[in-house]
Amino acid sequence: MRAVVFEEYGDRSVLHVQDRPAPVPGPGQALVLVEASGVNFMDVYQRTGTYQVALPAVLGSEGAGTVLSFAGDVEGFAPGDRVAWTTIPGSHAEQALVPADRLVPVPEGVSTEQAAAAILQGLTAHYLTHDSFAVRPGDAVLVHAAAGGMGQLLTRLVTHLGGRVVATASTPEKRAVAEANGAVAAVPYGDALDAVREFTDGRGVDAVYDGVGKDTFDTSLAALRPRGSLVLFGASSGKVPPFDPLRLMAGSYSLTRPTLAHFIAARHELLERSETLFGWIADGVLDIPITGRYPLDAVADAYAALEGRESTGKLLLIP
Ligand SMILES: NC(=O)c1ccc[n+]([C@@H]2O[C@H](COP(=O)([O-])OP(=O)(O)OC[C@H]3O[C@@H](n4cnc5c(N)ncnc54)[C@H](OP(=O)(O)O)[C@@H]3O)[C@@H](O)[C@H]2O)c1
């Protein structure tokens, strides 16, 4: 089977497609046929060594497809079932091993591609809007990079929950995408504080969802109302430099830096969040904007689009 492999950390040139023996499931594992696998910043952090992994490694952290086989019996699943998974390494391949207790059933009404595109970012958008900062009707929220994969889901969900989104994005085209998803205002990054003041009568936003990191952190803090929440969930522009907690005293702000794995660690939590997410997709509450599909051989092009700020919405590899 073919897989996207890297043997050392580096830029996209370290990625290559390799023929390898099909993996063999051990106890508690499923062998899955990968029909689609999402392109994520997590994979960039792993490839560049920001997140350390055992090398050589197969890239890719999420996907959806069909169960091929198990080692022994696994309760609740059978070969041929449509499934999705997330935060499982080795997903940019024709076949992958997934612990059976990490498999999520894909219901009717959700395509395999939608499931692959939604599972990592959709579950993230779920916990960010329900746990990291639980959005209530009337809340004003700043969402950075609002035309991106995470940004579009957050804008839709915050709006669905009754919140109002002030969005940032780098180009007029991306800002139009943010407004189409429900943002009350979409502005360039440099205009974020003015827009926040205007839409909150000078008060500041209740929360900021910041996946950009280094370049937006100061703006995010400055945009908060007293006792507001800064949810820093990524670093697409780079890591935020060391930070003096005393800065939070300016408004008794809350700062959290969450990661998906802690919000789906228990199987019941993984299943409950997935059921809600797939329900939203089946009911049309959440539209997953798949904007690019790439074969394994074009993996570097997919990551060039993501890292180069060319993409909006979700990119998929189709093994
Ligand atoms: N903590 C978690 O559980 C979790 C889970 C999933 C994703 N994430 C994080 O969420 C963030 C967004 O991920 P995504 O996959 O949805 O990506 P994305 O938002 O589709 O793409 C990144 C966007 O960030 C903006 N950006 C600003 N400065 C940038 C720079 N210097 N280089 C590249 N992009 C820059 C760009 O939008 P503009 O052109 O509009 O500026 C770009 O399109 C990432 O930081 C990722 O790590 C976190």
Automatic annotation (TrEMBL):
A cellular component term, taken from the record's GO annotations: cytosol
Domain Enoyl reductase (ER): 10-317
Lineage: superkingdom: Bacteria
Molecular functions (GO terms): mRNA 3'-UTR AU-rich region binding; NADPH binding; quinone reductase (NADPH) activity
Organism: Dactylosporangium sucinum
Sorted UniProt keywords: NADP, Oxidoreductase
Pfam families for the chain: ADH_N, ADH_zinc_N
The name this protein goes by in its record: Quinone oxidoreductase
InterPro entries named in the record: ADH-like_C, ADH-like_N, ER, GroES-like_sf, NAD(P)-bd_dom_sf, QOR-like
